[in-house]
Amino acid sequence: MKHLIYGIGIAGSMFYVPLHVLAHGTEEEHQREIFMQNLIRYGFITSIAVFIILIAAWFLVRRRMKSLNVKKKEERIQRNKLEKAGKAVGLTSLLPLVMGVILGWMSASPISEGVVNFHHIHGLDYTSDGKEIFVPAHDGLKIYKDGAWQSHEEGEKHDYMGFSMAEDGFYSSGHPAPGSKMENPFGIVKSTDKGKTLQILDLYKEIDFHGLTVGYRTKDIYVFNPEPNSRMNEPGFYYSTDETKTWNKSKLEGIQGQPTTLTAHPTESGIVAIGTDKGGFISNDFGNTFDAVLPDVMVAAISFTHDNAVLVGITGKLLRLSLDGTSQSDLNIPPLDKDDAIAYVKQNPQDPNEYVFATYNKDIYMTKDSGKSWVQTVKKGIASNQD
Description:
Elements: H1 2-13, H2 27-67, H3 73-107, E1 125-126, E2 132-136, E3 141-145, E4 148-151, E5 159-166, E6 169-175, E7 188-191, E8 199-202, E9 212-214, E10 221-225, E11 236-240, E12 248-249, E13 259-264, E14 272-276, E15 279-283, E16 291-295, E17 301-304, E18 309-314, E19 317-322, E20 328-331, E21 342-348, E22 351-359, E23 364-367, E24 375-379, E25 382-383
Antiparallel strand pairs: 1-2, 2-3, 3-4, 5-6, 6-7, 7-8, 9-10, 10-11, 11-12, 13-14, 14-15, 15-16, 17-18, 18-19, 19-20, 21-22, 22-23, 23-24, 24-25
Helix pairs in contact: 2-3
């Protein structure tokens, strides 16, 4: 019931806040995934329980049959009835057994050596040393290190949303892993030990921010707030410069269209960019006013570089723009499927020629020469683990 009320609140707030910024994972999608996970999990438990009960009943029937004297007519008739019942119970027990096997297989994670699955991709970014890439993927963090993807083994496998890396760790919102002692939703949390532990910052158990970004060094936090809460009186675009101690509401003047993505400048406080279905927009005053740097185009991904430019993913292209929009260049990228687009893109903080991007179809590509050549490390959500 709590999730239902929360979902209704978010749906209602869409009349006030353009929440297409949540296109990378909506609350409705999350609740549907949780429902399916619970259906599979409890379906498996129920199937096995029913199977055990039926087998126990079958043994009781067989035991009763052995106690009957077939030389006596009444007991012989009773034995024949029990024999038919036993066969029926035995055959019926096959159904929950088969269902249990199927549901168990569906809930099991791949165990093949070297195989890493990305059920969803909720972001990506480099660590401050540029040696690792973190991807929140619904079932915990996936890490690219030393030429291979691996599932993060430290900490719980939380469903991180609004994931944003900083120089000393990461910030995120989201939902706790199954069996976790943490409450749902996260509000805003921070980790400085790669997710081993989480520090609760604000709005814990109140809000899941799917639209969240943090400045890499400035630590400016920007969120699309979907509904009134204990810290924000109304839906809207908010920012904090002191790690959630205080919040300010931005005016969003100059924004056109429905937001799809957002990013904070890594080193300059107050600079934030938003991509919409009508273009790319940059603000120098914490989101109060915006100027269009790429008008009249659908922007699927946007990200500031660490050398004072902005990367913009549009249909079939990856652009590099100056902050004032006067200079533009196309980065060569591999051809994408017709129904696909770049969902997230980042530059290595230690190497201006290295980029990584992920697509909506869960492909991940990397380049170390500014796009002259690319290596695909994940295809349709399956890591290749080839350097």
